[in-house]
Amino acid sequence: MRAGRRIALQLALWLAACSSASCWHVYSGSREPGCRDGLTYLEAEYTGAHRRERIDAKHGAKCQSTQPLVGFAPCDAGPHPVVIYVPGTVQPHDHAFILQVLERLARRGHAAFSIGYDNFWPGQDCARYRARARCIFDAELETSALSTVCRLPGCDCERGVAVLGHSQGGMLAILAADYAPGVRWVHAMGVTANPPPTVSDLDCVLPGTRKLPAGRLLAACGECDALFDGGRLNSCAGRSPGVSRGLRKLTGIACGSERACVGRIGRGPRMGWIKVPGSRLRDKEADHCYMFHQGCLGPPDQDWMSDPSLPWGLPALIGDLERAFR
Length: 326
Hints:
It is a single chain. The protein is an alpha/beta fold. It has one domain (3-274, 313-324): 3-Layer(aba) Sandwich (Rossmann fold), CATH 3.40.50. Helix content is 25%, strand content 19%. The termini are far apart.
């Protein structure tokens, strides 16, 4: 069986296995309305694009699918800068990992949200990615996720917006600035410019096509990501240089290193790319979901959540967000 078909089959099996909530770890915090322990839980709905919807140069994209969004903000009136997390394929918008991240961001003074969208199919192209991104981020659409968030109490989109995303969500995060000029910074996880076998076109996220400047993007990918390594390796034993090549192509940044090219413009957030090494992870597998322990269905990697020495970990990303909102 060809490698591309094999990975597509694995994705299909994963989709089937994750069709019920039993796949995912449960969030243990409070999701009750009102102020609790310094945070307010918020939820709303916006209108997104169906997975088959494609962007149209004349008419844009139809946003007709009701989708949820959830998040946390500090209890005080604020207003607070906004961070949006875009989940990957099949990942629930209220996955325990995502809610933990949102809670951590809110405790650092941000209004942090995760958005649901029609993400239950891995096969995509730019026309579909852009349709979803428009319905999520278009600041001129009253029903977009971003416009909905900006109307919620305590949210200050005038200070700018930052976007985090994983896998398919990382691609959508990179496209956010095409529709929302106020996007200050993007962190895309588990992506390169080498598409998985089910993706036919990624030109829209490349430098020169997208509107997000290289100075506002930090991308990270595991060194043995079987979906985005370009060589279709399906084992961490390979550690293909395709991940480095794909990250350089995605960001437009090269520095002669095969491991990382990271810089900063003035006092702003970091820019560039990081190839996550398995040697620094607890399970030693820098796969597509390196921020999890033992694969995409495992619990969150606690080092990613808490270790300030990891340049791809949450503490470092929080520092970038604070610089982006200065």
